[in-house]
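REVIEWER CHECKLIST
Item 1: Sequence provided? yes
Item 2: Single chain? yes
Item 3: Sequence as submitted:
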Amino acid sequence: MSAWSEAGLLRQRRTVVAPGWRREVENRSGLLIPPLPVRGQGGPRPTPRASLALDNLRGFVILLVLSFHSVLAYLDFLPASPFPFDSPPYLWRAFPIVDNERWLGFDLFCAWQDVFLMSLFFFLSGLFVWPSLERKGEQVFLRDRVLRLGVPFVVVVALLMPLANYPTYLQTATDPSFSAYWRHWLALPFWPCGPMWFLWLLLVADMAAAGLRQFFPRAGEGLTRFSVFAAACPMRCLAGVAIASALAYVPLALAFGPSPWVAFGPFGLQLSRPLHYAVYFFAGVALGSCGIERGLLAADGVLVRRWVLWPAAALVSLVVWMALYGLTMAAPGATSLGLKMLADLGFVIACLSSCCAALALVLRFAGRSRMLGSLSRDAYGMYLVHYVFVVWLQYALLGMALAAVVKGALVFAGTLLLSWATITALRQIRPAAEVLGAARARGTAAS
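Item 4: Structure as written out by the authors:
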């Protein structure tokens, strides 16, 4: 018996109304999907809770990104001296500054973020893709995404990344001049893109979604069925995401290892994770195809009802993954295949649990916040420019006799203020404001 017949509901056609788009869906599962209220009927419509929650989450996530990069120089496991600029495997790309002050707490903090943060980024980015495609069509959608993602990628990677990595070169340079640095930079076998790898990979995912709609016209029906299934059987949906993520991640992690990166020109990616990120992106696309106010992200959905359990599950799964991963790192050459598979599966479960915990908490405690509203509006722009401030501030603090916690806090605070001020100034320039995104009403969904 299929999951649709197990639901035991009658077939019928319903009209689905989501913010800014309207389409008719044939619900073959028989699940009743009540339409959202239409603007203009019954007075002004209040901001949907899920939209407000995800708006707050965008502001919170950018704080996590800035904090993550701000403390990388103070991780306890780093070597005593900086990584050489000209020698493979060029680990300075991940740790551009190495400080003598260390704190183990930062290792745990960064390990937690590394497990789930970028997967959550891809999931959130996918939520609004299908409504945008329905509203704009493939050509306009892709044009907008190239403007929003492609243009900043080119500008930031070409101009800001060389500036950001100059202090990295200065740590080990015999000739500190910028001309010498530029020669060493051009001699690298790639063009470092820093955190901007997310932009080009997300643009590829957007192109894949547009191609899916263009060449497979019935794909929308499949996405709708998945969204309906997620509303009717949320735990089965999460189990399906976990299985798909395991199939996407574990083979690549076993083949290449969980950590190595590869770069082709300015395009860098982590070898074990591209398919894993694709799973989360298209899970977001499917769940958002009928609007975000139903199913897993509903105000009374399974995430909100069990909001206490998800953080506990995230903590337990994180500890288990860290223990398994630590065992594989203790004797890399002698680790059994079974232990490696368990560690990789531990990553998959820890990632999903932490994503659910983050979503559950913001959905449960969604509220209006002027600061988070402003931060979420400028979050994307801050992501684009923050790396320059992070690296230079870490370099400026190298010779100061301060504890690692103090240095990390100073770098984070300085990066937050300088990035925010920079984007506020750039918004006064019309072309930059168009790329960064025009000011919008609080709680309005944006891709």
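Item 5: Key structural point noted by reviewer: The chain has one domain: 46-436.
Item 6: Recommendation: ____
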